[in-house]
Specification:
With 205 residues, this protein is mainly alpha-helical. It has helices at residues 29-50, 58-68, 73-80, 84-96, 121-138, 144-162, 181-184, 188-194, and strands at 71-72, 100-105, 108-116. Helix 1 packs antiparallel against helix 5 (121-138).
């Protein structure tokens, strides 16, 4: 059996290449750590949500529908800030599972209304439990004070990043003088509850 392969020059490859930030990230070690944490958090969320029969990102759509009631599909697309075709695929899957219902908007037959079904109440319970498990896994070993401090610091980090994110809660909205602006603009609460969905890839949906 041949021995371990070495790159040119005879230098061994690091046993754990992800243990430290790569050279290009040396000026941003915390940003690199945050990206790793976010990735692992999405993986854990995906594992818990899979038990409920949905994919990461779909729960944010359902959270909005559970809280807001029937909404136009165009508004939903703005809230989750994903490509329209991606949201359409999400809704098709959720509709096939019996969690959402789509119908023509009586006020505008060209628009589509989306709403959560009564059958989705079971999913609501499952998503609540999944997020509770995710919270405990994420914060395991941290006491109440540390959890509160982490929440405070993450709030400041979010506020910093929001300055560079158009449409982020707390930033001036883009000027829109077209018709239907008031109805189609998502509320701050809706944006807050779905901000994490923006990083979800189409492949996960």
């Amino acid at each position: 059996m041949s021995g371990p392969q070495h790159p040119e020059g005879g230098a061994e490859r690091p046993a754990c290449p992800d243990a430290a930030p790569p050279s290009a990230a040396h000026c941003g070690p915390l940003s690199h750590a945050l990206s790793r944490v976010a990735r692992l958090h999405r993986i854990a969320a995906g594992r818990f949500l899979k038990e409920a029969g949905i994919y990461p990102g779909q729960e944010f759509v359902m959270m909005h529908l559970w809280e807001s009631g029937p909404v136009r599909q165009s508004e939903l697309i703005k809230v989750v800030d994903l490509d329209p075709s991606t949201v359409t695929k999400m809704l098709q899957r959720l509709e096939q599972s019996g969690h959402v219902r789509r119908s023509p908007d009586p006020a505008d037959r060209r628009a589509v209304l989306v709403e959560a079904t009564a059958a989705s109440c079971t999913l609501h319970t499952q998503v609540t439990e999944a997020w509770g498990r995710l919270e405990e896994l994420t914060l395991a070993g941290l006491d109440a004070h540390e959890r509160a401090e982490l929440g405070r610091l993450l709030g400041r980090v979010e506020a910093n990043l929001c300055k560079e994110a158009p449409g982020c809660p707390g930033t001036p909205p883009a000027r829109d003088t077209g018709p239907g602006t008031a109805r189609d603009t998502p509320s701050r609460a809706a944006q807050d509850s779905t901000s994490s969905a923006r990083s979800t890839s189409a492949a996960e949906l």
